[in-house]
Design brief:
The protein is an alpha+beta fold. The protein is 19% helix and 27% strand. Strands 1, 2, 3, 4, 5, 6, 7, 8, 9 and 10 form a ten-stranded mixed β-sheet that branches.
Length: 269
């Protein structure tokens, strides 16, 4: 049987999703928990290779096993008893044999959180990027729309894994204010966070973090919204904004439009 796990995790302590030789990864930690619990060797395929320090509000992985000795409705509780508290399995579902968490995902949305304040907030450390300068959200939102569509995103990628093409489709890119993860922050002084949401059919290495850095440049007046279009057309990484730190980035929503078995888990909400 093919089992899909829906999980979330805080990526602070991990070198990303994928197994690494030089440090702990989410994939390795989860694989060890599955193998210990079920008493067999298996391989977990994940929806994406989140980088070191990146978090996941929603994440899907799948593994194949001859027989699962634990009922799927009880599997999350059993796995969570084996896992550290910064990784949580939320649900488990049987999916078709051909299902792969990575290749069956039709759209992904990442969210980048910016904390606009001159003062640090200990409750947001490692959760959002602190930006100590004022920004114009209207300009940022206007700049964000320049990323929407099917186009070449070479200007907002870092060198890394080689790819055949730097063309991707961005379905939406939004800049908005939001509350600080359900609480008001240190002594009530925290300003609302800025959330940058980018949804696409695939992403280049550090693409969302570079988009977020470019939009902060737009909001700070270092770039105009119109210059975003020019930068994308010219494809020069040095002309765009910086790649922001990993700790502000979250895998936020996922779409599995051809896998009805995952529909009850509301991954796209």
């Amino acid at each position: 049987m093919n089992v899909a796990l829906i999980l979330s995790y805080d990526g602070t302590a991990y070198h990303g999703w994928q197994v690494q030789k030089n440090g702990a990864s989410v994939q390795q930690t989860l694989t060890e928990a599955v193998e210990k619990l079920l008493g067999c060797k298996t391989y977990l395929s994940g929806v994406g290779r989140t980088d070191a320090g990146v978090h996941a509000r929603r994440y899907v992985a799948n593994f194949k096993i001859d027989t699962c000795t634990i009922p799927l409705d009880r599997l999350p509780l059993a796995l969570n008893a084996q896992l550290p508290e910064d990784i949580a399995v939320l649900a488990a579902a049987e999916v078709p044999a051909a299902f792969d968490a990575r290749f069956c995902c039709t759209k992904k949305e990442y969210a980048y959180y910016v904390y606009p304040s001159r003062l640090p907030d200990p409750f947001l450390a490692g959760r959002a990027y602190r930006h100590p300068y004022p920004v114009d959200l209207t300009r940022m939102q206007e700049g964000a729309q320049r990323f929407v569509g099917r186009q070449d995103f070479a200007a907002v990628r870092s060198t890394g894994t080689p790819v055949k093409s730097t063309v991707r489709t961005v379905f939406h890119c939004e800049v908005e204010r939001c509350t600080a993860f359900g609480f008001d922050g240190y002594m009530g002084a925290t300003a609302p966070l800025i959330r940058i949401r980018v949804c696409g059919d695939g992403f280049l290495y550090n693409m969302v973090r570079a988009i977020a850095g470019t939009l902060l440049y737009v909001g700070s007046g270092k770039l105009s919204p119109g210059e975003v279009t020019e930068i994308l057309q010219q494809g020069m990484r040095a002309q765009a904004g910086p790649t922001l730190p990993a700790h502000g980035l979250y895998m936020n929503r996922l779409w599995y439009e051809k896998t009805p078995e995952l529909a009850p888990y509301r991954l796209d909400e």
